[in-house]
Amino acid sequence: MVNDKSIFTINDFSIYYGNFKAVNNIKLPIEANKITAIIGPSGCGKTTLLRSLNRMNDLITTSRVEGQVLFQGVDIYHKDTDVIELRRRVGMVFQKPNPFPSSVYENVAYGPKLKGIKKKSQLDEIVENALVRADLWKEVRDKLNESGLSLSGGQMQRLCIARSLAQEPEVILFDEPTSALDPISTANIENLLQQLQKTVTIIIVTHNMQQAARISEYTAFMYLGEMIEFGETDTIFVNPHNKLTEEYITGRFG
Amino acid sequence: MQDTESIHKPFMLVRKKRFNLKQGFFLSLIRMLGFAGAITLFVILFFVAYNGIHVLSWEFITQPPVDAMTKGGIFPVIIGTVALTVFCMIIIIPIGVTTAIFLSEYAKPGLILNMVMMSIYTLAGVPSVVFGLFGLAVFVVAFNFGMSLLAGSLTLAIMVLPYIISTSEEAIKAVPNSFKEASFACGATKWQTIRKVVLPTAMPGILTGSILGTAKVSGETAPIMFTAAAFFTPGVPQSLFEPVMALPYHIYVLATAGTHIEETRPIQYGTALTLIVLVLGMNLLGIILRSRQRKKKAW
Ligand SMILES: Nc1ncnc2c1ncn2[C@@H]1O[C@H](COP(=O)(O)OP(=O)(O)OP(=O)(O)O)[C@@H](O)[C@H]1O
Ligand SMILES: [Mg+2]
Which of A95, A240, B65, B268 is the most exposed place for a label (fewest CB within 10 A)? Predict the structure, then answer.
C-alpha cells in the first residue's frame, strides 16, 4: 500500500523501553491529507507509535527505536535530522488539553515566537489565522488576553489545536483528543478535524470506535505492539480480514 | 450539589456513631497541645508588645540613637536589617533558581546528585554561629570584604541556601509535565522550554520561597555578629563595604554590653518588637502569596 501519496512511511519499525519491546516491527503508510485512525486495546502501543512520529519519544531516556520512519521520503531517525524542525512540521495535540498558563494569544503565538517572529502585525495575523482554522476565533476574539486556562474544556482543546496550527504543520498527531471532553465538544472537534484534513494530514489515536468509523479514511488496528490490520476504514469496520480485528471492533475485548 | 449532600449525609451519621473514647481522648490531647503552642506564641508576643509598645513612635523608627544609645531612635538599625535582608534576597534568588534548574532538569540522578542534595539538606541543620564563623573566614578575611553589609548578606544567603534550593526544586518539579510536552511539541529546545514555560510557572513559588527563607534568617544574630554588625554607626550605610547596625545585634548589644543595661530596657523591647513586626510581616507576605498561588493554580 506504500505509494507516492504517503507522507509517512513506517518500515519494519520497532520501539523499545529498555528491554521491553512496546512496538514490534510495524509497517504502515500514512496518506497525505487524510485522517488515519489508530485503534487497539489499552497498552498495545498506540501512544508509543504516535509519539515516535515527531520524536516526542526522545524525551523518554529509556526509549530506543529500530527500523525506519520516512517523512516525505526522509528518515526522521537519521542522525542529521533536525528534531526541532520535524516537530514544527509534525505537530501534536494531547489527550488532556494542555494550554500554557498564559493568555490565549500567547498560547497561539508561542511557536511562531520561538521561530523568531517578532513583528506584532505578523504575529497578530498568524494568531487570528490559526484561531479561525481551529474554529475558535469567534468565541475568543474578545478575550485574547485572558488566560487560556479560563476556557472550557472543548475550547482549550481547540486552543491547543490552534497552537499547533500556528506552525503551519503538514501533519498533526492527536492522542485521544476527545477522551476528556463532553459529547458536544467532541462533535465540534470531529467536525473540525474533517475540515482540517483538506490542509493537514491527521493521525488520531482513539478508543472510541464510532469516532474512528465516523471521521477516518484509514484505520490501523494494533494489538500487543503488533500491527494486526490496516486498511480503508470501511473495510476494517464492515469486513475485517483478521479475527482479532473483528473481535475488537465488535466489542468482544478491549 | 444537593445530590452529593444527600449521599454524604448517611456516612456522617455512621461516623458519629463510631466515635469512641480512645479516639476522643487523643483528639482532645492533640487539641490541647496545639492550643498550648498557640498560647506560648501569644504570651511571647504579648510580653514583647506590652513592654515595647510604649517606646514605639514615629521618632523611634526615624531617628538615630543618641547619648551612647540610651536615647533616641533606631533608624539606622532598621535600615541595616532591611539592607541585609534585601541584599540577601538579591543574592539568593538567582543562586536558588540556577541551582534548582540544574538539579531538577540537567543533573543526572545518581550517587553524585544524591551526595550534593544530602550536603545541601545537612546544611540546614548546621547551627547559625557556624555560618557566622564561615562568613568571617571566607567573606570577611579571605575575600577581604571586611565586616560589611556585603559579607553579612552573603553569610545570610548561605544560610538560606538549603531552604531556597529545596523550595525552588519543589516549585520546578510542580510544573506539570504536560506544559513541557506542549512546549517540546511546538518545536522548543530544552532551554527554551525551561526559560519560557518552566521558570515562569515556577517563579511565584521560587519568590515565595526566597521571602520565607530570608524571613527565617533575618532575625538571626550569630551569622552577622562577626561579618556585618557594628556596635554603633552614626548613620545609614553608604556602601556595601561598610558595617551596619542590625536589629537582633542591637538588642544583644544593649542587653549585654555597656553600663546602661537597665536604663535601655524599653529601647531593647522596642527594638525586639520592631524586629518581630518585620519578620512576621515578611512571613505573612510570603504566606499570603503562597495561598494566592495555590488558589490560582488551575492545572
Ligand atoms: N515511559 C515508559 N516506560 C516504560 N514502558 C512504557 C512507557 N510508556 C509506555 N510503556 C509501555 O509500553 C506499552 C505501550 O504503551 P502505550 O502508552 O503506547 O499504550 P497505548 O496503546 O497508548 O495505551 P492506552 O490506550 O492505554 O493509552 C505498555 O505496555 C506500556 O506499559
Ligand atoms: Mg495511549
Answer: A95
Of A15, A39, A47, A58, the residue with max ligand 1 atoms within 8 A of its CB, to mutate for a pocket test, comes to A47
Q: Does B57 fall in a domain?
A: no
Is B179 in contact with A92 (Cβ distance < 8 A)? no
Question: CATH number of the domain that B156 lies in?
Answer: 1.10.3720.10
B74: amino acid identity, one letter: I
- The pTM of this model reads 0.82
Q: How far apart are CA A137 and CA A117, in angstroms?
A: 21
Q: Could you give the CA distance from residue A120 to residue B152 in angstroms, rounded to a whole number?
A: 46
pLDDT digits (tens, 9 = 90+) for B111-148: 888 888 888 888 888 899 999 999 999 998 989 898 89
Asked if residue B233 is part of any domain, the answer here is yes
DSSP A112-172: HHHTT---HHHHHHHHHHHHHHTT-HHHHTT-TTSBGGGS-HHHHHHHHHHHHHTT--SEE
pLDDT per position as a tens digit, B33-51? 888 989 998 898 888 888 8
Are the beta carbons of B187 and B131 closer than 8 angstroms? no
In this structure, is residue B77 part of a structural domain?
Answer: no
Specify the DSSP element, H or E, that contains A227: strand A226-232
E strand intervals along chain B: 65-66, 71-72
Which residues span the domain enclosing B178? 82-296
Could you tell me if residue B283 is inside a domain? yes
Number of independent structural domains in chain B = 1
Q: Whose CA is nearest to atom 30 of ligand 1?
A: A43
- Tell me the HSE value of B114 on the side-chain side, using a 13 A CA sphere: 3
Measured CB to CB, residues of chain A less than 8 Å from chain B are: 54, 56, 59, 84-85, 87-88, 91-92, 94, 96, 98-102, 110-111, 114-115, 147, 149-150, 160, 163-164, 167
Angle CA B240–B244–B248, to nearest 5: 135
- Establish whether residue A48 lines the binding site of ligand 1, counting it when its CB lies within 6 angstroms of any ligand atom: yes
Chain Cα centroid distance, residue B67: 34
Cβ(A50) – ligand 1 distance below 6 Å: no
Centre of ligand 1 from the C-alpha of residue A65, in Å: 15
DSSP string, B215-235: HHHHT-SHHHHTTTB-S--SS
